[in-house]
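Risk register update: the risk of archive-format incompatibility is retired. Evidence:
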Amino acid sequence: MSFQSSLISPIQLQESLGQNANIILLDCTIDKVGQSIKEAKLEILPHSQFFDIEGKLSDPNSKLPHTLVSPEVFEREMRRLGINQDSILVLYDRWGIYSSPRAWWMLKVMGFKQVFILNGGVPAWKNNKFPLVEEYTTTVKPGNFKAQFQENLYADKEYILTHYRDTKVNIFDARSKGRFSGLVAEPRKGLHSGHIPHSKNLPFEELLDGIVYKPIDELKRQFNHSNKTGDEYIFSCGSGITASILAFACHLVGHGQIRVYDGSWSEWGREELNLPIEK
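Archived output:
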């Protein structure tokens, strides 16, 4: 059994469950800025485990939100979830499409191959009247996952400083037009307004149709209309979450040279760093 695309429908997933014991379901939900889902009733797919982006899988020693942990920590946590080298991971979130692409990028940058996203997440699953449960699966056999960091999928501040003037590199910012242009204040304290010089604005909502990704042809048009100048794509946002929505869409339409700027505007916009900024 193999999925034809990295983005799968609820029906495709439902038909595959029970046919392959290597499928592992991971709920990758986090709160949105200004919106919490913690008080909502927990409704998840049966036999799911929790992929803890904001807790165990964010560096507690970083001043920045959602910063990647070390490969050693990531490997340990994936093994704790029972993930093996031959596992087939299906990621979803309870919003629809929000944080599951971040989990996809985290797994890819740590070298995992078979990783897929459920288009529409829990809301789409629920719309198909497929079963939901209220508890995670917690008892699993430890896995043998081996983290192998893929530097070609990662961008840090130094990489951006070296490449932001490079015409062969396209930097996309997933924040709103107001935040990108500096007309709307940042929701996090201590940050300048504006954007990385020479970057392009593509608000992540423009790639979505409600809870699901837009069709591939429409995603292609979004990237083709961006006046791209090269074959490498770097994605940024506020803290690396919605940047990954763009990165996954870029992957879906066939682009291979993709990086996510892990620090994103939470780092670049810090007042004390005085990095180059446009408005």
